[in-house]
Amino acid sequence: MLIKLFQILCLSLFCSFWAVGQDYQFSQQYSNRLYLNPAYAGLRSDYSVTAAYRTQWFNLDKGFVTQQLAADYKFKNKKTSAGLIASLDKAGSAGFTRTMVGGIYAYQTRLNEKFAASVALQASYGSQCFSFNDLIFGDQLSNDGNINPTSQESYIYDPVSYLSIAAGGVLYNNQFWVSLAAHHANQPAIGFANESKLPVKFTVNTGYKFYVSNYYRDAYLYEFSITPTITYTQQQFFKKTDLGLYLTYTPVTLGVLYRGLPLTGNLAYDQSVAVIAGVVLEPFRIAYSYDVVFTGAGSRSGGAHEIGISFDKIDYDKIFKSRASKKNYKHISCPAF
């Protein structure tokens, strides 16, 4: 009976953690830009497809594993874009699994000769559940130390499905951008045994690309640039600031992201440094990053590996012809990784 009560308590705490907890996060923020803000759809390329895989706390048995597939397409009118994002997130020995599929509609417009803006809406269907196959209840334990394969306990946690609404906006030009996104704006109910709502997640992100040199040759853009970025995330009591610095020398990008800078909030969160390396093999972009965690629980549980592969179709010829004819084509220049 004591073991049974302990397991139920652990499950209840685990449910509460996820009910008020935070969404998963990527170190390669700009490879997964649709997850960062739906308004990024159609801003970097005519169309793209990105696959991401992240595993963290790998020193633990069954740590966190996240997989995501995202795609966006800019329509011929160059003012509207559509996006699709699907993810699978797994964590813990209790077999917690969360899946989500969402659709994005974005609209872009030029504000003046220097700036353009993009606004977007996203609707996502989410589902989360537990798997009890790896749990052991008290009535499965025998005096001889063997474990019975079946239990009389009823599995009290049914899968939970919900609809999540997100909105975002980006103000940008060819070198600068600032974005604001609000995910789970409708605060969907995600509780298993008790009623609980998923808190709204606010994300503010900005950056500026300094070009040391850039030129156009053979329908391709070559650049040597330095790009500092900053991202602030808040979801209920969770507050986090990330500082990034990217160096691009075509076709290679190197980046460093300091995650969890303690600028706001009184709670102690994990702090880490993510080292990012990516290469462009047109039309593909391949990146790898590793998070070195030096504070919090993650420092004892291992860091994080992340791999991203993107297929991008960018018509540089249209971009440069538009600029040459003073049409001032607006193309966001955020980092690729």
Describe the structure.
With 337 residues, the protein is mainly beta. The chain contains 4 helices and 15 strands. It has a 14-stranded antiparallel beta barrel with strand order 1-2-3-4-5-6-7-8-10-11-12-13-14-15. Strand 1 and strand 2 form a beta hairpin. The longest helix is centred in the N-terminal third of the chain and has 19 residues. Keywords: Signal. This is PorP/SprF family type IX secretion system membrane protein.
Helix content: 10-25%
At CATH level 2, the architecture is Beta Barrel
The CATH first-level class comes to Mainly Beta
* CATH topology grouping: Porin
Total helices: the number is 4
- How is the biggest beta sheet arranged? 14 strands, antiparallel, barrel
- Output the structural class: mainly beta
- Measure the end-to-end span: 51 Å
Mind telling me the CATH superfamily name? monomeric porin ompg
Low-confidence stretches: 1-21, 319-328
Sheet with most strands: strand arrangement: 1-2-3-4-5-6-7-8-10-11-12-13-14-15
Q: From N to C, what is the helix and strand string?
A: HHEEEEEEEEEEEEEEHEH
Which percent band covers the strand fraction? over 45%
C-alpha geometry:
globular
Radius of gyration: 22 Å
